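Most newcomers find our protein records easier to grasp once they have seen one. A learned vocabulary of local backbone shapes supplies the integers on the structure line. An example says more than a description, so a record of this kind follows:
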Amino acid sequence: MYELTYSRARLGLFDTLEEAKNEKKEYESRDDVRPHLLNIWNYEQPGPNEAEISMGLDGLTIEDINDLLIDE
């Protein structure tokens, strides 16, 4: 599985790398997206006795994340 993130927020999980790349391309075409913040990561689901670590940003919109980011 693959995970698409924007900054540290998860935008989606995908079964194939091609699906993740297609979704990334769709986000890159938006005017409000900073392309350098989009990343694709390998994702392994946690085992039955393991917990998933979350940054607490899942479910936020691109606009929410952009508002939280501080430009250097």
In short: The two ends are 33 Å apart (CA to CA). The mean pLDDT is 84. Helices lie at 17-28, 62-68.
